[in-house]
Amino acid sequence: MIEHLENIKHKNSKNFFLIAGPCAIENEKMAMDIAEKIIEITDKYQIPYIFKGSFKKANRSRIDSFTGIGDEKALEIIWKVSEKFGVPTTTDIHENAHAALAAQFVDVLQIPAFLVRQTDLVVAAAKTGKCVTLKKGQFLSPGAMKFAVQKVLDSGNDKVAVIERGNTFGYTDLVVDFRGVPMMQQFSPVILDVTHSLQQPNQDSGVTGGKPQLIETIAKAGIATGADGLFIETHPEPKSAKSDGANMLPLDQLDGLLAKLVRIREAIL
User: Fold this and answer.
1) Which of 1, 2, 81, 148 is the 20 to 30 Å CA partner of 9?
2) Sign of CA pseudo-dihedral 59, 65, 70, 76
3) Phi-psi region at 34: left, alpha or beta (left = phi > 0; alpha = psi -120 to 50)
4) Please, what sign has the CA dihedral across residues 109, 74, 56, 121?
């Protein structure tokens, strides 16, 4: 997928690529600070990098959960990140109309896991001509994702990749089946969503939990199994994040993690 992104750096480094940033855009300073730090680290290790931030959080546990600061306001912040730092950006969309709106501001449109079977949404994203990432539904087998990928291809867009984010295991846990990485690579590049794979949804409190202490374990396994890219949500203070703080990586731990992952990548090439 990254070969289609003209403004991505380190394409020829033979490294995995990284999609990373906050779960949600909370304000401009936060987005800029996070992007600047990640770019500093990824430049050091020559890792191709895409900035991620959700402009709107539609899949929430409770009606009073944080959903965003305003659609266009958040999208303009994401666009400013790209303009200031010269990196590609991505955000997730939830409605057909979001495809054309978000495509004005970002380089990659992400389809959420719960919506990956929504044909109209997938087609709307594909027809913008932007790169499209499809999160594998927690309820889908790896092989079933070829049909979602085919919807993008049949819409005249070959800029598509799949994001693995675990399978539902009981009511409040997710499990990653790493056999799915090579299986899905038969028809698409595969990105491992490290942090969402460690979510613990459907908590009695109405707030999604997580197991961030296992981020390094999942990330190492993903690189060892040959994932093309990693997806990591990070925040300077996860406990104060307005969304998904329970499973995000503290920003000050990203450098050490990527250093280890780069060494694993070198070992398997």
Assistant:
1) 148
2) negative
3) alpha
4) negative
Closest CA to 188 of 162, 150, 222: 162
When pLDDT is averaged across residues 240-258 and rounded to a whole number, the result is 92
Residues in CB range of 163: below 8 A, 6 or more apart: 110, 133, 134, 135, 136, 190, 191, 192, 193, 231
User: Could you read off the pLDDT of 133-165 as tens digits, one per residue?
Assistant: 999 999 999 999 999 999 999 999 999 999 999
pLDDT recorded at residue 231: 98
Q: What are phi and psi of 227, to 5 degrees?
A: -55, 140
> pLDDT tens across 61-93, in order?
778 788 889 999 999 999 999 999 999 999 999
256: CATH: 3.20.20.70
Q: Is the predicted pLDDT of residue 202 greater than 70, yes or no?
A: no
Compute CA distances 235 → 67, 146, 177, whole Å: 17, 33, 27
Q: For 233, list phi and psi in degrees, rounded to 5.
A: -90, 135
Q: How far is residue 53's CA from residue 182's CA, in Å, rounded to a whole number?
A: 27
Tell me the pTM.
0.95
Mention every residue, 6+ apart, whose C-beta is less than 8 A from residue 260.
216, 220
Residues 6+ positions from 97 with CB-CB distance below 8 Å:
none
- Number of domains into which the chain is organized: 1
Output DSSP code: residue 83: H
- Say what angle helices 28-45 and 254-268 make with each other, to 10 degrees: 30
What residue has token string 């690529």? 17
Q: In terms of residue numbers, what domain contains 180?
A: 2-268
Which amino acid, 162? V
- Site of tokens 């990105």: 191
- Residue 203 pLDDT > 80: no
